[in-house]
Specification:
Order of helices and strands: EEEEHEHH
Strand content: 15-25%
Shape: globular
Number of strands: 5
Helix content: 25-40%
Distance between the termini: 27 Å
Structural class: alpha+beta
Number of helices: 3
Number of domains: 2
Strand order of the largest sheet: 4-1-5
């Protein structure tokens, strides 16, 4: 899939751990001199499509089911609700991920 954004722009993801409050930074991708990036990695595609509103692309949206391992807790709960998992608001994220895998 091909994405368009600012030339030479680096996309960095900050992840905050809820228990410790520690923040870790991860480089997701870097756009080339023309502001283009080609990738087939569903995790990068999901981040660019959902977290960078100015980014444009050619192709379809990635389904959240394809990138469960990088979804935030809120996104996992939303997906569980959409899939009809009972008590999605009370279950742990680990258990919700397991139930989503079973579907």
């Amino acid at each position: 899939m091909k994405f368009h954004y600012k030339p030479k722009e680096a996309i960095v993801q900050n992840i905050k751990q809820k228990q410790t409050g520690a923040i870790s930074r991860h480089l997701v991708c870097v756009f080339d001199n023309n502001g283009e990036l080609e990738t087939e990695d569903p995790r990068i595609i999901h981040i660019l499509q959902t977290k960078i509103p100015e980014c444009t692309w050619e192709g379809e949206l990635v389904k959240p089911e394809e990138v469960k391992e990088i979804l935030s807790d809120d996104e996992i709960r939303k997906l569980a609700k959409e899939k009809g998992i009972s008590h999605w608001h009370n279950k742990s994220i680990k258990r919700l991920k397991a139930e989503l895998e079973e579907l």
